Amino acid sequence: MPDKFTSYEERAKRHPNPAAKALLETIVRKKSNLCVSVDVTGKADFLNIIDIVGPYVCLIKTHVDIIEDFDASIIDRLQELSKQHDFLIFEDRKFADIGNTVALQYSSGVHKIASWSHITNAHPVPGPSIITGLSSVGKPLGRGLLLLAEMSTKGSLATGSYTEEAVKMARAHRDFVIGFIAQRSMNGVGKDTADTTDDDFLVLTPGVGLDSKGDAMGQQYRTPEEVLRDGCDVIIVGRGIYGKGPSVDIQSVREQAERYRSAGWSAYEKLL
Ligand code: 6AU
C-alpha cells in the first residue's frame, strides 16, 4: 500500500470493516473526502449547519458534549439528516480511560454514542485495553475506531515511538480499528522490514484550512492539497467552513462547504 496509490473505490471493495467500507463508498458516491466538524454549542445552529453542508460531505464530525441544549431529539434529527444527505457520523469523543470505563462511556450515559455514531476515536495512551473495551460495545454494532496517532497542535507529544506504538496497536486489532487521526499516511509505520503485512489504514486529518495557518490556541492548518499529498484520506474542516461565530451565515457556509469539497477532491484526483 504505501508504495502504490490506491483509489477509494478499490479500497472500498476490499475493506473488511463495515464502517470503513461505508465511508469509502460514500466518498466515491459523493465525490467528497470532506468531513465537517460541527463545533457549535446551540442545537439550532448545529442542525442547521449539518442540513446545509450535508450534500457536500462524506462524514459529519460531532462533539455532542458541547451542545448546551442537548436532548435525544438532536440525535433523531442527526440520523434523519444522515440518511437524507447520505453521510456517516463521527463522534469525536477521544476516549482515554481503562477498558471498563470507556465501554460504559461509549454505550451509556446521556449520549449513548455507540447507538448512533458510525465512527469514534480514542487516545492510545492506556494501551491495547482501550481497544478491547470499546470493541466489546462497537464491534457487534459494525462500528469503527480511529486512534489518535498524531495531533495537529503545536507541541503535540504524539510523535515518534508513541505514534509507532499506536500503529502497532491498530495492526493487532484490524477488525475494529479502521485507521487514525494523523497528519500523514500511517501505512508501514513502525513495521520491521520482515513484516510484509499489507496495511490499509484510513487517515482522517484535522488542521485543514485554506485561508488561515492556525489559531491563537495552538491549532495549525495545512491545505487540502498538502494533506492529501502526505497520504491523508479525509480532510476535517471546522471553522474554515462556518467561521468563528457568534452567528452563522448560511449562504457562506454552503459556499465554503462546496469550496472545501472541491479542493479536497481535486487534490485526490491529482494523485490518481
Ligand atoms: O477546523 P477546526 O480547527 O475548527 O476544528 C478541528 C476539529 C476540532 C478538534 O477537536 C479536532 O478537529 N481535532 C482532532 C480530532 C478530530 O480528533 C485531533 C487533532 O489533532 N486536532 C483537531 O483539531 O473539532
UniProtKB/TrEMBL annotation:
GO terms for molecular function: orotate phosphoribosyltransferase activity; orotidine-5'-phosphate decarboxylase activity. It comes from the Eukaryota. The keyword NADP does not apply. SMART domains: OMPdecase (SM00934). Pathway: Pyrimidine metabolism; UMP biosynthesis via de novo pathway; UMP from orotate: step 2/2. Its EC number is 4.1.1.23. It holds the Pfam family OMPdecase. This is Orotidine 5'-phosphate decarboxylase. It comes from Cristinia sonorae.
